[in-house]
Every structure is written in structure tokens, then in C-alpha cells.
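assembly run, all chains below
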Amino acid sequence: MRLFHTGRDSLVGLDIGASSVKVVELQRGRHGYRLRAYAVVPLPQGTVIENAIHDRQGVVSAIGSAMEQAGVKTKRAAIAISGNAVIVKMILMPKMHELDLEDQIAYEAEQYVPFDLDELYLDFHVLGPSRKDPEQLEIVVVACKREVVDDYRALLEEAGLELACVDCSVFTLKNVAEVIGEVSSEDIYHQGWSERDGPQTVALVNIGASLINMTVLIRDRLTFVRDHFYGGNQLTEAIQKHYGLGFEQAERMKMERFSELDAGLVGGYFDELASELMRSLEFYSAYHSKFPVERILLSGGVALMPGIADALSGRTGMQVDLMHPFPTIAIPPHGGLDAQAIMQAGPRLVVPVGLALRAFDP
Ligand SMILES: Nc1ncnc2c1ncn2[C@@H]1O[C@H](COP(=O)(O)OP(=O)(O)OP(=O)(O)O)[C@@H](O)[C@H]1O
Ligand SMILES: [Mg+2]
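ok done. output:
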């Protein structure tokens, strides 16, 4: 599932976040995927606020530095959109021919997307027959304003790149989880549901500086997605207030001396974060109460906070694990890459890894 993709040549995953620009390039070999190159270039505070670019030149130059640091040769990039830049809807449609489906979906989209169709890029993917009614198809529809995509295309061009693929952060999480064997890739579309095997419901949750991307899977079936603004910045701001520091200083304290932070401050942040996650999960359970989420797989920079898995597990009552793309995606020993640092940073690289995987789409 992606908004569009042109051609099958090499591709770099380019993730423009509120805290940094990240690039990842992968290679596919006989034994699976390998990391070819990566870089994370921090963005000064205010360059990207939530998911809006405020300092265009700042982003262009960070992209340039990231490409140079990583030593990526390809000019073709896959980017992710998320938050309020995109509308993702799960809908049900009676079974019909693919071409009729296209017309019907465009018609449906007009009902719930508050823009003219010709202002939008629209894409859809048939997930499979509905569990409740096998005569109906579950379909995920993605709509994004053309203006948003065109703006990214122009930005990339300024950085000397070509926009080759637009994906959604929430879908990259599923792709990575599958590739690293964290979720079943059993094809329930063709095999149908077998209730007797019981559900296996996982929430993939990416927490960045300002944005939480959430994807809930029932086995391999994409069932629910939601983005909302909340992230690591809330703890940075609490540190700023508590210790009277500037943003950059507080950020450094959080990254380098986490264990010295006031325990009440950190505990309070984990409480709030757990409530944020539970609130999103309530939107999910309103429609899928029969399949409660059993496990959370965490990624994003916030997943690197020491003790976060236990802290969230204690507060949500769910099993919480970190999503580590490496070393299932191998780190070549002779590529000049610092394997230990990459392993540690792994959860933070999930979105750009998922974007880089688009290079190998059929
Ligand atoms: N080792 C660490 N310890 C604690 N916090 C960390 C660590 N590494 C990163 N973070 C926090 O994670 C956040 C950045 O995560 P990430 O790189 O996933 O965000 P982003 O993709 O730039 O932002 P967004 O996705 O919200 O646009 C920041 O709040 C940062 O302080
Ligand atoms: Mg991010």
C-alpha cells in the first residue's frame, strides 16, 4: 500500500521528522536484507513543528548532509506522510470487479474526504474478505492532498532528489514487523479466518518527537490506524520547566543522563504516555472489542528511553516489546558501519527502514 511508486530502481528511504532527517538504504541478497547505508541528521528545534516544515532551507540542507554522510548514490527517494497530511480509512464494500471497485471507492471517498477529488491523490488496497461478512471486502483507502505531495516533491528536488514513492508511516510499521518476523505473514485473505486459532492482536506504535503513529494488526490483517500529536517533546518540555533549561540542553540531558532525571518527572511522563496510548486503543476497541490488543511493539526515538517497555507494560497491562529491525536485517561487518550503535538505534530507524523496503516491492 502506498500512494504511488514509479519504477523499480534503487530507492532510499527518507524520513523527515520533527527531530531529525533519517535516511536508510537496503540491499536484498540471498539470505535476506542487508543495511547498505544510513544516517540520522538532527534538525534544530522549530525546523519542523509537528509535521509542518517551517524552515525549508534547513530541511533541504539536512537532507543533503544525510545523503552525504550515508554515502547514498541513488537520487530516488521514498518518503512517509502522516498526521493531518493524510486521511486513511478502512471501509467495507461488496465484492466486485477491481475496476468497478475503483469507481465506487472514488465515489465513497467524496462522502468522507472534505476536499474535491481532483485535489487529492487517492489509493486503495483490498485487505480481504471481512470476518463479519465474507461477502464484503475490507479495503483501506488513502487520500492525501496533491498540494502536500507536490510540496514534498519540490522540496526533494531542491535537495537534488526525485520523489519516487509516497508511503504512510503507519504502513511502514507493518512492513518492517513482517520482514523481521514479528507478526504472522499468514495470508488470511486467501485462507480465510479460522477463529479456532484465536486472535493475535498487536499494536505497532511509533513514537517520535511529536507524533505517535499506531497500526493495529489482527494476525497479519491491517485493522486500524491512527496518528496523533504527542511524543518525546512532552518530556523535553517537562525537563525544561523542572530544571530551567533551554530545549537543546534538556534534550541532551534526556538522551545522555536519563537515569539522573527526577523519577517523579519521568514517571509522570510515562503515565501520560500510557493514557495517550490507551485513548487511541479505545478508538480501536470501539469497533473490535472481540479482539483486544495483547501486545504493543514500540518503535521511534522514544522507544530508546531506558525502562520504557516495563513502564508502559505496568501501566497498560499489556506485553510491551521494542521493535528491532537489526540484526534480522543484517549489518555487514565490513561496510564501515558501527554495528553496535545501529543495533541500539534500531527502533528509531523503523520508519526509514520500512520506506527503504519499498525498493523491493513487486
Ligand atoms: N536515547 C534516547 N533516550 C531518550 N530519548 C530519546 C533517545 N533517542 C531519541 N529520543 C527521543 O526521541 C524523540 C525523537 O524520536 P524520532 O527520531 O523517532 O522522532 P522524529 O521522527 O524526528 O519525530 P516525529 O516522528 O515526531 O516527526 C525525541 O523526543 C528524542 O528526545
Ligand atoms: Mg518520526
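The chain has a mean pLDDT of 92.

The longest helix spans residues 263-287.

not gonna interpret more than that til we talk
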